[in-house]
């Protein structure tokens, strides 16, 4: 499949109204595979196409917040919402510089959430109850999960309608996907029967190397039509955009990586995963 056919999917038609949002978890227990980069740039691309988007930073590292230039130090965060210190999500939501893209930030406090939640009633459903309060105000909510299959990730999957798995085009990255799919199936079976695997997104692809091409072929062989046609290439522009606190679709809008994320947004709409 071509990794450069950026006009394969049509530009989405405008929406007549807003909400209720479809909630998507960006999930992989392996770190460094492009979850946060994808959350930021998919969210920004959907916002550019007129969708109201809320990105939820669900990783104690707070990379999503930093990548969108959002302060998460002196302001309330997702942690306060989870533990009930703040009841209204509107007190936590911050507007990014991208029109139509809002953020619920996170910081290191979130690392204590699993210990706090472990004794709570319906502990797997706390994020779902938080997002329910704002779901009608957005078209898409994207949850950027931490690299773990712990209670926070289970909360995200329980709250979600779909899950996207960014998968680095590297051999060892393939090994953990079976475990993640097993976790998704357990959540489907026990907590959230409506959860769907929206797709597996190949990331950090380097077409110059045989290794990347072979891994991509194996991903297609293993997962078939569950693999997005869009493939995200490797580029130094991503860290540059992160340092600037701006999505690559605005930092370098004509770069191939920006075009790829806009195609991903169009592909999600074409697949019916996003309105």
Provide an overview of this structure.
It is a single chain. This protein has 275 residues and is of the alpha/beta class. It has a single domain (22-270), classed as P-loop containing nucleotide triphosphate hydrolases (Rossmann fold, 3-Layer(aba) Sandwich), CATH 3.40.50.300. Helix content is 39%, strand content 14%. It has twelve helices and seven strands. It has a seven-stranded mixed beta sheet with strand order 3-4-2-5-1-6-7, with helices on both faces. Helix 1 (35-48) packs across helix 12 (256-271) and helix 5 packs across helix 6. The radius of gyration is 17 Å and the shape is globular. The relative contact order is 0.21.
Concise description?
This is ParA family protein. The protein is of the alpha/beta class and 275 residues long. 39% of the residues lie in helices and 14% in strands.
What is the topology?
Layout lengths: L21 E5 L8 H14 L4 E6 L4 H5 L10 H6 L10 E2 L5 E4 L8 H5 L8 H7 L7 E6 L5 H9 L2 E7 L2 H5 L1 H14 L5 E8 L6 H14 L13 H8 L3 H4 L4 H16 L4
Parallel strand pairs: 1-5, 1-6, 2-4, 2-5, 6-7
Antiparallel strand pairs: 3-4
Helix pairs in contact: 1-12, 5-6
